[in-house]
Amino acid sequence: MDVTDGLEVPQETLDAEIKSFFESAPPLKNGDDISEKLKEFIGRNSLPSGNGSARRVVCVTSGGTTVPLERRCVRYIDNFSSGHRGAASTEYFIKAGYAVIFLHRRGTCQPHCRSLPEDPLLECFEVTDEPNIRVRQSDSEAVKRAITEHHAAVAEGLLLKLPFTTIFEYLQMLQMIAISMRSLGAPAMFYLAAAVSDFYVPWRSMVEHKIQSASGPLDMRLVQVPKMLSVLRKDWAPMAFCISFKLETDKKILLEKADMALKKYKMHMVVANELLSRKEEVVVVTTNDKLSVHRDKTHVGNDVENPLIRLIVERHSAYLENPNL
Ligand code: 9Z3
């Protein structure tokens, strides 16, 4: 639940909060490597694709960010997200011809692995005559499909996976990706399904060592994470088609909050979902309509992301025809 949704933060205050967030964040350990990968991926996908037009590129964010409580982190606050939404959506975007930058929380659900058991290495294989190991007959179709689809996406240069853990890593990486994608213009899309922390402990006020329980009850001040959505729209990638998500546990306030986010952050679409029914139904909120999207229960294995991505791709096509609408 986002407590700042109803309050207007003046632009200068927001700019100062954003500056302070990035200044206080510990620098990314592999920033040069990420930057190199992004340059190569975006360079390759800016070239005209088979049909002569530029390939569409989407940044899918997935999983929850953590907020460390100590610099040498033993404890942290986490945000709920299994990463299923982001992983499934990535697969449908690739099928629709998009190149995907999958910015995901380490250890969460991965594209093409949804139909595999939780620990595929241990559960999908069996030892025959040692030292031979083979895929168990019962899993062979799912394993074959996962490997084939994944390798095809990577070989065609359509999938770049970038992992994060903390809110500091997530926002720095999102900024790098958005600035790199700016040159793509309207064919670029942001699909922001990650569950992002609302509060954090600034690095400069964070203790170095493990907090001691002997010191008594813990009294800690968390600062609000500045909302980066408006700066993404305004400065980082102004022409990109932007979709954010609104998660609530109280159905009564969900659509109102989604509407507010749409206007406040100038999103093109906000996908509203409620925690318990998120796999069955979402509501897509735009300036002109509210569309309910359901999982097709008549087909086994179908998920709500299938019709959702179909709708988003349609709306992105309309946006490409006329970005000013
Ligand atoms: C979502 O609402 C996602 O749909 C879920 C997906 C996290 C619910 P799972 O990963 O679940 O499939 O298990 N993501 C956005 C959540 C969020 O933090 N939104 C912020 C808010 O609601 C706006 S950025 O205030």
From TrEMBL:
Residues 175-297 form the DNA/pantothenate metabolism flavoprotein C-terminal domain. The keyword rRNA processing does not apply. Pathway: Cofactor biosynthesis; coenzyme A biosynthesis; CoA from (R)-pantothenate: step 2/5. InterPro entries: CoaB-like_sf, DNA/pantothenate-metab_flavo_C. Keywords: Coenzyme A biosynthesis. One of its GO terms (biological process) is coenzyme A biosynthetic process. The keyword Aminoacyl-tRNA synthetase does not apply. One of its GO terms (molecular function) is phosphopantothenate--cysteine ligase activity. Pfam families: DFP. Belongs to the PPC synthetase family. This is DNA/pantothenate metabolism flavoprotein C-terminal domain-containing protein.
